[in-house]
């Protein structure tokens, strides 16, 4: 049963090399995984069925059961994308970030940028979307208020990753619960305390760093 895994593992770098036109680092990860799965399925069918290790009926039964298990995950991902688009179009992140430009000491800005980035990523379920929204705002605030720019960049990235990790609608959270075969809500509930500890410590660190870099 290790052979299908070996075929898949070998197929991924090969297809990365092909899709990258000779450069494995420029290959498409999603396309490579897709073709690797297809090749593995063909290998299982043409290797195991002639060898009578699995019947034709059992193969397609398992195949359709696997597809069926992916439907709820796919629907959650689609709705997560829709929710993220709606929140982004409403300008939620821009509104929250605009609140920081009031009468607040510059020392608090890195911490607040981290918190706003975390809230945005948690609400949208995407760290990269948060980066694209919050990075221009954070850099503008940093330049205007004379903040340490690397610290501002770190606050945006850290907040985005923290919020994305803790978000129940994040693709990484959804896929993790699916891969583990556990209830999605239970997975979110059990991972949240660990994420909050890291988020709390990061908040304190950005507060201290904000004071030290003035």
From TrEMBL:
InterPro entries on file = Na/H_Antiport_NhaC-like_C
Q: Which Pfam families match?
A: Na_H_antiporter (PF03553)
This protein's GO CC annotations: plasma membrane
Calcium among the record's keywords? no
Where found, per UniProt?
A: Cell membrane
Listed A to Z, the keywords are: Cell membrane, Membrane, Transmembrane, Transmembrane helix
| Chief place of localization | membrane
Ranges where the Na+/H+ antiporter NhaC-like C-terminal domain occurs:
5-211
UniProt keyword annotation of Cell membrane present: yes
Q: How does it sit in the membrane?
A: Multi-pass membrane protein
Give the transmembrane region(s): 32-50, 62-87, 107-125, 137-162, 194-213
Mind telling me what this protein is named? Na+/H+ antiporter
């Amino acid at each position: 049963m290790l052979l299908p895994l070996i075929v898949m593992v070998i197929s991924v770098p090969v297809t990365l090399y092909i899709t990258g036109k000779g450069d494995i680092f420029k290959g498409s990860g999603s396309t490579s995984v897709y073709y690797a799965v297809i090749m593995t399925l063909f290998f299982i069918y043409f290797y195991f069925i002639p060898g009578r290790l699995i019947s034709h009926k059992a193969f397609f039964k398992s195949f359709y059961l696997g597809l069926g298990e992916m439907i709820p995950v796919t629907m959650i991902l689609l709705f997560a994308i829709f929710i993220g688009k709606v929140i982004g179009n409403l300008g939620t992140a821009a509104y929250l970030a605009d609140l920081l430009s009031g009468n607040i000491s510059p020392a608090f800005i890195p911490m607040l940028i981290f918190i706003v980035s975390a809230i945005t990523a948690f609400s949208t379920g995407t760290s990269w979307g948060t980066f694209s929204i919050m990075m221009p705002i954070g850099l503008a605030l940093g330049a205007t208020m004379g903040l340490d720019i690397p610290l501002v960049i770190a606050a945006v990235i850290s907040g985005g990753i923290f919020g994305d990790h803790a978000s129940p609608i994040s693709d990484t959270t959804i896929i993790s619960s699916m891969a583990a075969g556990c209830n999605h809500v239970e997975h979110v509930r059990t991972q949240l305390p660990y994420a909050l500890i890291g988020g709390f410590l990061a908040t304190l660190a950005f507060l201290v760093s904000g004071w030290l870099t003035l």
